[in-house]
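Long-time lurker. I teach an intro course on protein structure, and each term I like to show students one example going from raw sequence to a predicted 3D structure in token notation. This year I'd like something fresh instead of my usual example. Would anyone be willing to generate the tokens for the chain below so I can use it in lecture? Attribution to the forum is fine with me.
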Amino acid sequence: MAGLQAGSPTPQALTVHAQSRVLEISFSDGAVFRIPFELMRINSPSAEVQGHGPGQAVLQTGKRLVDLVALEPVGNYAVQPRFSDGHDTGIFSWDYLYFLGAQQDQLWQDYARRLQEAHTDRDAPMAPKAGTGCASH
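-- Reply from a regular --
Happy to contribute to a lecture. Here you go:
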């Protein structure tokens, strides 16, 4: 789901609801989704969240009150949000936003399961990153 697939629904309207912390997006197929900023942030497609390969995803916590401070277009296929916690490296394709909207219930269930497995909760502060920094070549 990296980019817009041929024949995929395209966005018709995009509204940031700052007070309720949701991104409302309507698509050409009639689907309308209200995606919480927290759900977007914890599922950011960035390497910082997803990792660089299978099993490297970083569980995001403490994001319940995250705000969307900017939303920049990326070509004709995506937007790049900047969140109030400083995260700004995820590029959300229209396909990915559609996926987030359509799969919200399952994504929240998966998140609850991962929190339980990690013996933490969604409001816990983020754990410090292990091994931060890059090796020089």
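Some talking points for your students: Residues 131-137 have pLDDT under 50 and may be disordered. Residues 11-117 form a domain with the NE0471 N-terminal domain-like fold (CATH 3.30.2020.30).
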